[in-house]
């Protein structure tokens, strides 16, 4: 195209844009002039003019000939202009707020649509619930909470996304990214069956928020050996109940091992030897129906023949021989092994901790086999790095899940209603060594674990690279929240989400005119830096066999009933504070001693 033609085209474009801009100003202003002029005419007693906005804007004196000059100036000139400017300002402000909000939650258009994750949508998840739960088979209407666990809404829509009662999940969410408020608490509040929660916090967390609501569904059991919530000891649990077999004793000893050393150190000589001694002594205590604390006396005096005699009397001669060989081995080796075992079980020396796992008069015993057939709630609380105390928390959670598996087998294969196990802060307070292996079958038993971690590396530290990879692969639902700062993991997620075709338009200018070319190239749908910058309130959802979806999370405090829950949480938090103050309040004897 010749340069002169290009210039003419540019001139026409400019004129057209100018005309459109004038029309965008004149049309609303003319209608405001006609409307305000008529309202003024009504107020001054003049006649209402017919619809003629253009004349009202350009020649108001002809539209309202009987109206005074001042009234015309104010009603058809000043007021319309002021209203127009005010409306423009309001629209501009609302648009700016919308853009600001949208900037924080940019919708990724190439993520999964509702049809891509149909198995997680309402109709499919309801049909699935009918087939999984015999109690719902003939129900005419099924409440949403009975069909699955709400994960959030498909971004930008009202479509609820739920995981079914045969799914197992891993959630990787950084602190304050909604893992408790948007996942743990809502799941607990709507669970149709028993609920197990592990946590390292109490006040202002899932414990205080859900306590009263869950108390309306069934009994609430709280195991708080390190007094996270300063809870009164109203239960005790016998960890040796499932340790009367060598496998059971090995599992219990494994919890003490996992709570004390990382996965990378569990294979060395001292760790394995200490765990073996601990297993043999736990087995002896269980067979003789002794309290678990008796093993501390045996660990302190290796020459004590009591555990040897118990093992032999109950037919465990090979185990007794192994124990005898260690006891009669080289003193330096024996002492090292026993000291390792003593360190693993050191929490049992604390009388306050030991009281939760030894028989207590007038206090009910928590029995996992009864819990799994109820609608009760079990809170398992422990501090980060709780050592032996966190071993007891992991052992209790493990015993509940194993009791649930046994009950499911007796009930025809599945629990109905299903049991929800929310393992919050699992890498800190609930290190179940073979949890990745359990993931392969728990969902098919109606046992729904949700393991919540702060990062992928945190899981690798506890279960090793192979173990964490196994749990990740076995999880049918994976939820990724904001705060992913691991570049390798973010890139892995980006590759899982995939690529899309992007159209690129390039324009070049030359003496012969302007030329435009269009090409296609592939880009990541969500690059690693965008995953790292996921805003709070959103999460990625990876479900087996489906495209990755972006979710809008639904925290409990934005749902119906939030005011009542908030009040209940405040009451529970105040009760914790009162118990803490009372516990540390100086007594009269303290003053007497000081005097």
UniProtKB/TrEMBL annotation:
SUPFAM superfamilies: P-loop containing nucleoside triphosphate hydrolases. Residues 501-521 are annotated as: Disordered. One of its GO terms (cellular component) is plasma membrane. PANTHER family: CONJUGATIVE TRANSFER: DNA TRANSPORT (PTHR37937:SF1). The keyword 4Fe-4S does not apply. This is TraD/TraG TraM recognition site domain-containing protein. It is found in: Cell membrane. Its main location: membrane. It comes from Streptomyces zinciresistens K42. It comes from the Bacteria. InterPro entries: P-loop_NTPase, T4SS-coupling_protein, TraG-D_C. Gene3D superfamilies: P-loop containing nucleotide triphosphate hydrolases. Keywords: Cell membrane, Membrane, Transmembrane, Transmembrane helix. Residues 504-519 have a biased composition (Low complexity). The chain crosses the membrane at residues 14-34, 74-96.
């Amino acid at each position: 195209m010749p340069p002169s033609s290009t210039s003419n085209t540019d001139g026409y474009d400019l004129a057209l844009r100018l005309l459109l801009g004038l029309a965008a100003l004149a049309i609303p202003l003319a209608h405001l002039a006609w409307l305000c002029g008529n309202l003024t005419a009504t107020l001054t007693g003049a006649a209402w003019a017919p619809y003629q906005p253009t004349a009202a804007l350009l020649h108001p004196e002809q539209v309202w000939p009987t109206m005074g000059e001042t009234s015309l100036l104010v009603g058809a000139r000043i007021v319309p202009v002021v209203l127009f400017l005010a409306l423009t300002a309001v629209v501009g402000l609302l648009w700016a707020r919308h853009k600001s909000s949208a900037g924080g939650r940019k919708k990724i258009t190439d993520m999964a649509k509702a049809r891509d994750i149909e198995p997680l949508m309402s109709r499919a998840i309801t049909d699935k619930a009918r087939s999984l739960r015999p109690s719902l088979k003939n129900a005419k209407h099924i409440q949403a909470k009975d069909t699955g666990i709400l994960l959030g809404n498909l971004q930008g829509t009202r479509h609820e996304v739920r995981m079914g009662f045969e799914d197992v999940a891993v959630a990787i969410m950084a602190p304050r990214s909604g893992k408790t408020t948007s996942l743990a608490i809502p799941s607990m509040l709507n669970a149709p069956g028993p609920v197990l929660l592990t946590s390292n916090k109490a006040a202002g967390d899932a414990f205080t928020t859900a306590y009263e609501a869950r108390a309306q569904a069934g009994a609430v059991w709280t195991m708080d050996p390190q007094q996270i919530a300063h809870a009164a000891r109203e239960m005790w649990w016998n960890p040796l109940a499932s340790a009367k077999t060598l496998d059971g004793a090995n599992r219990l000893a494994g919890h003490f091992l996992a709570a004390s050393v990382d996965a990378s150190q569990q294979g060395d000589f001292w760790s394995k030897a200490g765990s073996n001694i601990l297993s043999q002594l736990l087995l002896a205590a269980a067979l003789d129906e002794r309290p678990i604390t008796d093993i501390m006396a045996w660990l302190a005096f290796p020459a004590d023949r009591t555990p040897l005699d118990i093992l032999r009397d109950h037919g465990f001669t090979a185990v007794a021989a192994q124990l005898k060989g260690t006891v009669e081995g080289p003193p330096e080796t024996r002492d090292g092994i026993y000291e390792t075992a003593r360190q693993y079980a050191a929490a049992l020396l604390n009388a306050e901790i030991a009281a939760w796992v030894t028989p207590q008069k007038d206090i009910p015993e928590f029995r996992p086999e009864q819990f799994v057939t109820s609608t009760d709630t079990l809170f398992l609380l422990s501090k980060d790095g709780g050592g032996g105390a966190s071993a007891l928390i992991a052992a209790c959670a493990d015993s509940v899940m194993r009791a649930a598996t046994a009950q499911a087998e007796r009930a025809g294969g599945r629990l109905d209603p299903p049991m929800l196990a929310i393992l919050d802060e699992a890498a800190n307070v609930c290190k179940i060594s073979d949890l990745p292996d359990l993931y392969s079958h728990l969902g098919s038993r109606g046992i729904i674990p949700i393991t919540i971690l702060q990062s992928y590396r945190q899981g690798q530290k506890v279960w090793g690279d192979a173990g964490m990879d196994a749990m990740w692969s076995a999880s049918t639902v994976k939820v990724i929240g904001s705060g992913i700062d691991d570049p390798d993991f973010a890139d892995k997620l980006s590759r899982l989400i995939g690529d899309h075709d992007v159209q690129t338009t390039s324009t070049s200018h030359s003496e012969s005119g302007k030329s435009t070319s269009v090409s296609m190239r592939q880009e990541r749908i969500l690059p690693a830096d965008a995953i790292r910058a996921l805003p709070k309130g959103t999460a990625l959802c990876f479900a087996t066999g489906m495209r990755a979806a972006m979710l809008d999370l639904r925290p409990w405090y934005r749902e119906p009933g939030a005011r009542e829950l908030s009040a209940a949480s405040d009451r529970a938090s105040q009760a914790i504070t009162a118990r803490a103050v009372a516990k540390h309040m100086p007594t009269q004897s303290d003053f007497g001693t000081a005097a």
